[in-house]
Amino acid sequence: MSLGLIHNRGDVAATELNLEKSYSIHAGIAHTRWATHGEPAPRNSHPQTSGSGNDFLVVHNGVITNYQVLKETLVRHGFTFESETDTEVIPKLAKFVFDKANEEGDQAVTFSEVVLEVMRHLEGAYALIFKSRHYPNELIACKRGSPLLLGVKELNEDACKGSAFHDAKFLSKNANPKELFLSSDANALIEHTKKVLVIEDGEVVRLKEGGVSILKFDNDKGRNGGSLSRPASVQRALSILEMEVEQINKGKYEHYMQKEIHEQPESLTTTMRGRLIRGGSCKAKTVLLGGLKDHLKTIRRSRRIVFIGCGTSYNAALAARPILEELSGVPVTMEIASDILDRQGPIYREDTAVFVSQSGETADTLHALEYALENGALCVGITNTVGSIIAQNTHCGVHINAGCEIGVASTKAYTSQIVVMAMLALAIGGDTISNQERREAIIDGLFDLPNKVREVLKLDQEMKDLAKLLIAEQSLLVFGRGYNYATALEGALKVKEVALMHSEGILAGEMKHGPLALVDENLPIVVIATRDACFSKQQSVIQQLHARKGRLIVMCSKGDAALVCPGGACRVIEVPQVEDCLQPVVNIVPLQLLAYHLTVIRGYNVDQPRNLAKSVTTQ
After folding, report:
1. pLDDT tens by residue, 355-390
2. Single pTM value for the model
3. Are 364 and 392 in contact (CB under 8 A)?
4. What b-and-e string marks burial along 223-248, b requiring 16 or more CB atoms within 10 Å of the CB?
């Protein structure tokens, strides 16, 4: 049997592929590639092949770190390489294993055995799907480090409930045809089925003729007496996705990012649902985080709390750090996941390490989690994805319940992360008399927060008008301090990642230590000066920037325009005032809207920014 192979560059919708065409075969693989090795080009597209005969084809999500060594070995055995990818070594290695097994007389070597032997030689992170002309209507999938899900459509409902998933017969209990889907993301499966199996590291999934079997990879079991190892099947349980097709549709909005920005009042309500307790006339207002209740005493006794994340998740943790320090009295430190790994920063048994990740699959954060577990720290996960690796491997955690987020630039997950970490601070802080008034003010603020975000979303047109004024600019500075240093970083990141404009978030206290040299009448500068303990200092910053003819855009609390911009010399964005620790949730919304409109007006792809991926599953 020959296998067809199609490679294209560009958006799937823009290619000449006939997606309506029917095929007589029952197993196929496809991949929209995010380039890690080699430029985006047909030769580097997936599936990658073992050679001209397409004996083995592979799609791959991840990075093979030892591909260069494998490539050199395969070249010595006569293989030629056509792409610049790390992936190409995998199908060629599969062909090498298959040919060698047949030469040595292995009796009817199976597809699974070939893949298991290939896995034994791979280092790095990967989710792989194999197809071969030697094994018609059969697919093999495996994973280590990268996410992989198996979707099952039209499974017998009675068989599904509480049933184990352990052999091919499981899918053949009724006469209905079955469809099986392999995907790295639940969003791709939900329109087909809600029944999924979360594939675990080291598992090998075999799909053939409507049947499924799962094998467990054991690296210690190598070749035995000239034969490939034959591991036994393992038993697994199906789960149901708790999401709806409507969540992955744009609805009345033009883009996912726009939809997700405007969904924030609802997503924040969902994040807090069942977790805030107002109590009666004689009961204190409090917070209930069920995923942490058994570990709160340990966290309170911690030597320190370490927040670990990347990008937007790191910024969300930074926004929550001051209130956690205030209420808990425990020192809180911030770590970028890749940096703590690079320098092997100290983590102790007495530490609590909090891992923040929207997807729960972020590669650097996962490696930092492994490092913290090795060092004996209590590990807490804050993710938006039930069943993710971080959710599974941490000792305890909180699901942010922000709902499905498809746009690459995180918006509603960011605000929900801040709210969850504010509730974490309330839970750790306890109900002491000394901070009761402060706690109750924050809880009241949390209850009212969705309304405040709904109010600030009315600035949409104002932000669109501002974006039109900034369309030709090459750079943007954002100054913040205190709770809103994180807002400055996150606002600049949004502009940077979607509008493709250089933007920099700067701690306002560092202005005179270098950044002030950039200020002139042309460079647009956003200053965040809402009411909090740092307000008077931000007024001083505005005066100094104004004295140097800075082109200022000031964000302030409603009614403060005259205080931050005397004489109307700058553009003002007025936002509703909330409790200081919750102000970053409100303040980021206008900057999200600005980034969105700036991107659309400049003609860029707002949902899939250049060179970026939603879930960063490679280092």
Report:
1. 999 988 888 999 999 999 999 999 999 999 877 889
2. 0.81
3. no
4. eeeeebbeeebbebebeebebeeeee
